């Protein structure tokens, strides 16, 4: 077993950090993260962490640049305070969509952020539903990659949907959708889509039977909801009954809420890896938020006690 376990958080998602601390039955660590008048970030650890096994909870969700910089500054503060080990707990890993050079003269920001976290002094990373699994290989420190699927699966079972079909919104997500479908003993469908521009999606074809079925679309991120709403419309046009969407990271930027409000979606199911804005909470979209605190908390406990966390990856 490592030194004493301590949980700290930045300003990105303190509610989730508190739930994790409650699950572990320990108090949330005392730290202050403020701004200088010109906007620079100042972080101070308000208690002794020398020789401690520290877990810093901080999603790099909107505003991504502010939250990423908070993460880096807090890691540096913990390192200089002589923490024995620092684990960056990043439920939502931002900048992950730029994970390869698919155009000339573009950055690979998923790798850049991995370098920054490592250089700041993190000893390992705990994250959830990366946009691409290969991002784990961008790190030179250990990475524990969890999935929110078990939390969604338990809730979907409670819905008691008839003729249940799990839908992947694109061909790249078929592997994840198939794993969920197998756990629920459900059918599988996928959407073959083509991105016309950065904002416009054209649905090309639906692979699988959806007529008369209750559908659950599974994905890792919903940002502007363009892909999601086009998929919902195509599925309804092909005879789908009720349509749910289970998406881990609810960025919900720009026109997302307006688009979802106008789509025939029964319920949007998300995790609390990203806190919902007041505008989203006050909208007329039927949103169900499921906490992943117990999943992250269990992983933290096992990492601290040098126990296997592989069962949590499934």
UniProtKB/TrEMBL annotation:
<comment type="similarity">
    <text>Belongs to the ribose-phosphate pyrophosphokinase family. Class I subfamily.</text>
</comment>
<dbReference type="Pfam" id="PF14572">
    <property type="entry name" value="Pribosyl_synth"/>
</dbReference>
<dbReference type="GO" id="GO:0000287">
    <property type="term" value="F:magnesium ion binding"/>
</dbReference>
<feature type="active site">
    <location>
        <position position="193"/>
    </location>
</feature>
<keyword id="KW-0067">ATP-binding</keyword>
<keyword id="KW-0547">Nucleotide-binding</keyword>
<dbReference type="GO" id="GO:0005737">
    <property type="term" value="C:cytoplasm"/>
</dbReference>
<dbReference type="InterPro" id="IPR000836">
    <property type="entry name" value="PRTase_dom"/>
</dbReference>
<feature type="binding site">
    <location>
        <position position="131"/>
    </location>
    <ligand>
        <name>Mg(2+)</name>
    </ligand>
</feature>
<dbReference type="GO" id="GO:0006164">
    <property type="term" value="P:purine nucleotide biosynthetic process"/>
</dbReference>
<keyword id="KW-0460">Magnesium</keyword>
<keyword id="KW-0808">Transferase</keyword>
<dbReference type="GO" id="GO:0009156">
    <property type="term" value="P:ribonucleoside monophosphate biosynthetic process"/>
</dbReference>
<feature type="binding site">
    <location>
        <position position="170"/>
    </location>
    <ligand>
        <name>Mg(2+)</name>
    </ligand>
</feature>
<dbReference type="Pfam" id="PF13793">
    <property type="entry name" value="Pribosyltran_N"/>
</dbReference>
<comment type="function">
    <text>Involved in the biosynthesis of the central metabolite phospho-alpha-D-ribosyl-1-pyrophosphate (PRPP) via the transfer of pyrophosphoryl group from ATP to 1-hydroxyl of ribose-5-phosphate (Rib-5-P).</text>
</comment>
<dbReference type="GO" id="GO:0016301">
    <property type="term" value="F:kinase activity"/>
</dbReference>
<dbReference type="InterPro" id="IPR029099">
    <property type="entry name" value="Pribosyltran_N"/>
</dbReference>
<dbReference type="GO" id="GO:0004749">
    <property type="term" value="F:ribose phosphate diphosphokinase activity"/>
</dbReference>
<comment type="subunit">
    <text>Homohexamer.</text>
</comment>
<dbReference type="InterPro" id="IPR000842">
    <property type="entry name" value="PRib_PP_synth_CS"/>
</dbReference>
<dbReference type="InterPro" id="IPR037515">
    <property type="entry name" value="Rib-P_diPkinase_bac"/>
</dbReference>
<keyword id="KW-0963">Cytoplasm</keyword>
<feature type="domain" description="Ribose-phosphate pyrophosphokinase N-terminal">
    <location>
        <begin position="5"/>
        <end position="121"/>
    </location>
</feature>
<protein>
    <recommendedName>
        <fullName>Ribose-phosphate pyrophosphokinase</fullName>
        <ecNumber>2.7.6.1</ecNumber>
    </recommendedName>
</protein>
<keyword id="KW-0545">Nucleotide biosynthesis</keyword>
<dbReference type="InterPro" id="IPR029057">
    <property type="entry name" value="PRTase-like"/>
</dbReference>
<dbReference type="GO" id="GO:0006015">
    <property type="term" value="P:5-phosphoribose 1-diphosphate biosynthetic process"/>
</dbReference>
<dbReference type="InterPro" id="IPR005946">
    <property type="entry name" value="Rib-P_diPkinase"/>
</dbReference>
<dbReference type="GO" id="GO:0005524">
    <property type="term" value="F:ATP binding"/>
</dbReference>
<feature type="binding site">
    <location>
        <position position="195"/>
    </location>
    <ligand>
        <name>D-ribose 5-phosphate</name>
    </ligand>
</feature>
<comment type="pathway">
    <text>Metabolic intermediate biosynthesis; 5-phospho-alpha-D-ribose 1-diphosphate biosynthesis; 5-phospho-alpha-D-ribose 1-diphosphate from D-ribose 5-phosphate (route I): step 1/1.</text>
</comment>
<feature type="binding site">
    <location>
        <position position="219"/>
    </location>
    <ligand>
        <name>D-ribose 5-phosphate</name>
    </ligand>
</feature>
<dbReference type="GO" id="GO:0002189">
    <property type="term" value="C:ribose phosphate diphosphokinase complex"/>
</dbReference>
<feature type="binding site">
    <location>
        <begin position="97"/>
        <end position="98"/>
    </location>
    <ligand>
        <name>ATP</name>
    </ligand>
</feature>
<keyword id="KW-0418">Kinase</keyword>
<keyword id="KW-0479">Metal-binding</keyword>
């Amino acid at each position: 077993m490592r030194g004493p376990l301590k949980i700290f958080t930045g300003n990105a998602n303190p509610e989730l950090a508190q739930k994790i601390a409650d699950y572990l039955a320990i108090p949330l660590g005392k730290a202050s993260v403020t701004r200088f008048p010109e906007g620079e970030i100042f972080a101070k650890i308000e208690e002794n962490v020398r020789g401690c096994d520290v877990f810093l909870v901080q999603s790099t969700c909107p505003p991504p640049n502010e939250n990423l910089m908070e993460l880096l500054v807090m890691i540096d503060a913990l390192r200089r305070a002589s923490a024995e080990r620092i684990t960056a707990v990043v439920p939502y890993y931002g900048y992950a969509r730029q994970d390869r050079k698919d155009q000339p003269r573009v950055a690979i920001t998923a790798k850049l952020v991995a370098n920054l976290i490592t250089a700041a002094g993190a000893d390992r990373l705990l994250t959830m539903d990366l946009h691409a699994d290969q991002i784990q290989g961008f790190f030179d420190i250990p990475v524990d990659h969890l999935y929110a699927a078990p939390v969604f699966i338990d809730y979907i079972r409670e819905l008691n949907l008839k003729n249940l079909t799990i839908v992947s919104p694109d061909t790249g997500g078929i592997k994840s959708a198939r794993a969920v479908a197998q756990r629920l003993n459900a059918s599988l469908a996928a959407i073959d889509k083509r991105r016309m521009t950065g904002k416009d999606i054209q649905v090309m074809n639906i692979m699988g039977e959806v007529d008369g079925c209750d559908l659950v679309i599974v994905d890792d991120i919903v940002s502007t909801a363009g892909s999601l709403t086009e998929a919902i419309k195509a599925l309804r046009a092909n005879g789908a009954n009720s349509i749910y969407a289970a998406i881990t990271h609810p960025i919900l930027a720009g026109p997302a809420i307006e688009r979802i409000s106008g789509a025939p979606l029964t319920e949007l199911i998300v995790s609390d890896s990203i806190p919902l804005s007041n505008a989203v909470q006050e909208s007329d979209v039927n949103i169900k938020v499921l906490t992943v605190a117990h999943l992250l908390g269990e992983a933290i406990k096992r990492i601290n006690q040098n126990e296997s966390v592989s069962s949590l990856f499934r």
